[in-house]
Structure formats: C-alpha cells, structure tokens
Amino acid sequence: MAQSNTTVLAALIGLIAFMAVLTIAIDFFLRRRRERRVSRMDELEGHDFEFFCADLLQAQGFIDVEVTRGSGDFGVDILAEKDGVTYAVQCKRYSGPVGVEAVLRTYGGQAYYERMVGAVMTNQYFTSPAVEAAKKLHILLWDRGYMDTMIEESSPRDSRHSRST
C-alpha cells in the first residue's frame, strides 16, 4: 500500500513538473511570436506602417478605416470610426521620441477633416512637450506600449502591408 502511494505521489510530481515545463514553453513561443510582430512594425516604411496601423485599428473594431493619400493629407494618415465616434489618426514610425509637431499637425488635420477625435499612433514614445500639448488639445497619444497591447489583443491579418515586407 505504501509503495502504491509513493508511485501515485511520484506520478503526480511528474505531472506537475511536466505542466510547469509546458507552461514555460508555451509562454516562450507566444512571447517570441509577439516580438516578431512588434519588431516587424519597426521595419516598415512610412506608408506601409500606415497600412499596418489601419489593419490594427480594423482588428480593434474600427470601421470605415481609410488610409489617406500620403502627401497633402493635412497631418492625418487614417480616417476611421468606432462606436459612432470619428477619428483622425496620424501615424509616426520613428526611431526616437515623437515631438509636439505631430500633435499640432494632428490637431489641424482633425479640424480639417471634421473628425471628433484626433490621435497620434507611434511605434515609439512621446516627448514631454508632446504629452503636454496633447492634454491641452485633447489629442489621444497611442504609444508603443499601447500599440503592443493592441497587437496582443488582436493578431493583425497579413494583408496590404505584407506585400512590401
């Protein structure tokens, strides 16, 4: 009887160890998958990054998502709507912090396109003056951390932006 209890205990310990290793392995592979998607965002060129952001917004439930023509867009790269609220979004794929100019251009573009909300979306973070201006002008700032969360919540489909990568 004591030997069967020992056998059961050994099997239980083995099962717990297996589950721990499996959990670590799954976490490792999910983290690597997320990192590949995020680093891919950093490798995109300007207009391709805009399409990446548009796909990400669609995956988050935005509708009527439209990438603007590029030049002469009045500081707005994407027009979209969610829950009856219209958005004017500027996309900035930078290698350093995004400054106040992006906030000011978004504010102007939001007025030009007559949108309810303006937002700046970036793969980086914002300078303190940009954050201050955004607060005063009521512009949303979607930085790398926010984009990482959006990516985690929804796997953007490989679509338009995948042709150039």
List the secondary-structure elements in sequence, H or E. HHEEEHEHEH
Tally of separate helices: 5
Residue stretches low in confidence (pLDDT < 50, at least 5 long) are 156-165
Structural category = alpha/beta
Q: Any idea what the radius of gyration is?
A: 22 Å
Tally the beta strands: 5
Give the integer mean of the pLDDT values.
Answer: 85
What would you call the shape?
elongated
Taking the sheet with the most strands, its summary is: 5 strands, mixed
Query: Per DSSP, what share of the residues sits in E-state strands of 2 or more residues?
Result: 15-25%
Overall helicity: 40-55%
Question: How would you describe this protein?
Answer:
By secondary structure, this protein is an alpha/beta fold. The chain is built from 5 helices and 5 strands, in the order H-H-E-E-E-H-E-H-E-H. It has a 5-stranded mixed β-sheet, with helices on both faces. Helix 4 links the parallel strand 4 and strand 5. Helix 3 packs parallel to helix 4. The longest helix is centred in the first third of the chain and has 42 residues. It is elongated and about 80 Å long. The N and C termini lie far apart (64 Å).
